[in-house]
Design brief:
Elements: E1 5-6, E2 9-14, E3 19-25, E4 28-29, E5 47-58, E6 61-68, E7 72-73, E8 80-85, E9 93-101, E10 107-110
Antiparallel strand pairs: 1-4, 2-3, 3-8, 5-6, 5-7, 5-9, 9-10
């Protein structure tokens, strides 16, 4: 998203059969001067979605394939529970799980670790 968000916690699992379970707590606009005061500490989205991004082999090359869940209700406090089964590409290599806005294609949270770029 354009504005900074913070998250208290997120836990989840993705099975090879496509069963996705995500528990999101406290995904809200950050208490930051760049965020308008009236929305700090709240979630203004009615729903969140999950996005699974996989690497797939296609035509002798590796490509990215994304699969979205349907929207799931999110509270003003930024809490949501996503439980669904989605059809994953086969094989789905190195899956990455994103928590997305329910109303637009912007992500808030992602698995993994963002490394700082090294200068040459």
């Amino acid at each position: 998203d354009e504005l900074p968000w913070s998250i208290a916690s997120a836990r989840g699992s993705l099975d090879s059969d496509g069963h996705l379970s995500l528990r999101v707590r406290g995904l809200v606009f950050k208490d930051d001067p760049s965020v308008p005061a009236d929305i700090r500490g709240i979630n203004d989205e009615e729903s969140f979605r999950g996005l699974i991004s996989c690497l797939v082999e296609e035509d002798d090359s590796v490509k990215v394939r994304n699969v979205f869940t349907a929207p799931f209700q999110a509270s003003r406090r930024g809490n949501a529970r996503i439980r669904t089964t989605i059809e994953l590409p086969n094989p789905c290599v190195a899956p990455i799980v994103f928590v997305m806005s329910g109303s637009e294609d912007k992500w808030f949270s992602v698995t993994g670790n963002e490394a700082e770029e090294e200068e040459d």
